[in-house]
Amino acid sequence: MERLSGFAPQALSILRLVAGLAYLQHGLMKIFQFPAAAMEGPLPPIMLAAGWLEIVGGVLIALGLFTRPAAFLMSGMMAVAYWMVHGSKGLYPATNGGEPALLFCFIFLYLACAGGGPLSLDAIVRKKT
Asked: Distance between CA 126 and CA 39 in Å, rounded?
């Protein structure tokens, strides 16, 4: 298994890309009802703001551009979302539907600490400077 540690930087970039695209999908569902509608009827203002943050944050994280600040902001947003939406339904994520919010929160916290990895726009910009 020690051989796999050599792939850690690339795995970080893949994790960042997949998490960013998955997160983007949530915003697209709220704002553009694509690939499916997130809710029926008009969204409350807080959900509109969350949708746009998910779109912008998801794109930035997927591209690996401004990864650390974007991931830090999205991590905080997911912590707030967990306690506002899911925490009131019970403490345990498996029973309150909060597993995605919890996982996004801690994946983004890790990305805020680790950065975007070698396959990111941040890495390209860093090489040019």
From this structure: 40
pLDDT per position as a tens digit, 21-64: 999 999 999 999 998 887 788 889 999 999 999 999 999 999 99
Query: Which tokens go with 33?
Result: 């009802």
**Helix or strand holding residue 54 (H, E):** helix 45-63
Q: How many domains does the chain have?
A: 1
Q: How far apart are CA 15 and CA 2, in angstroms?
A: 19
Domain that holds residue 60: 2-128
* Distance between first and last Cα of the chain: 36
Q: What is the DSSP letter of 103?
A: H
Report the predicted TM-score, pTM, of the whole model to 2 decimal places. 0.92
Contact status, residue 17 vs residue 45, Cβ threshold 8 Å: no
